[in-house]
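Can't paste images in this forum, so I'm doing it all in text. The chain is below; anyone willing to post the predicted structure tokens underneath?
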Amino acid sequence: MELRISTLAERPEMRERVRGMVSSWPEFVTEDLVGNAHYARISGELPEYVLFAEDERGEVVAHGHSVPFALHTEGRGELPARGWDEVLVWAFSDLRRGVRPDTVSAISVVVDPRVQGHGLSARMLSAMRDNARAQGFGEVVAPVRPSAKHLEPHTPIEEYARRVRPDGLPHDPWLRVHVRAGAQLHAVAPASMTVSGSLEQWRRWTGLPFDAQGDIEVPGALVPVRCEPERGYAVYVEPNVWMRHAL
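Text version of the structure:
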């Protein structure tokens, strides 16, 4: 597939088309409060870190968001256990305070469901690496959401992340794309994203009854959702896997 890959800084008129592209993310994932507060800001405030791909017809078929942040600074130094959520908070805190970034974190690579399976995610990841390198960065990190982990919600993330095939590459397809691109598995982020809501909200997001105490398996969830009917809420704490790409 022929692709034209650009940044929103180069073509700001494409912002709404990029934001309006169809996504296959489960609805409940988009209800993370940190994500709701910060994700849309990337295209407006950091457009040079938003890449998008157009096909031969000019249709937006994929996009990738990333953010620059200061990792090697006082009080940090290590990639956070609260992965995706915390790196978004760090990035926009640094931007507000004028802190010089030293690292780029991938935030998302999204491919239109109609063209999945054609290697677009790998091409967008490569473009993200190239974009960070062109801006003078020496490393891209990524709080990766393993794409097949939802098929094994009860498997511990540490065990799952380190499972390999006979050829030595990761068992998980998305982790495998990162390793093939040159990344190394660094650590698990056990609380990378947190989604909490009332039982009624969870019913609306998932179509499930959410009327039983305990762990609920939800399609698309990497781990079970904890349901507390007597207290009227349920909470999902998603683990991700930190991958590090030296450039």
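The longest helix spans residues 83-97. The two ends are 26 Å apart (CA to CA).
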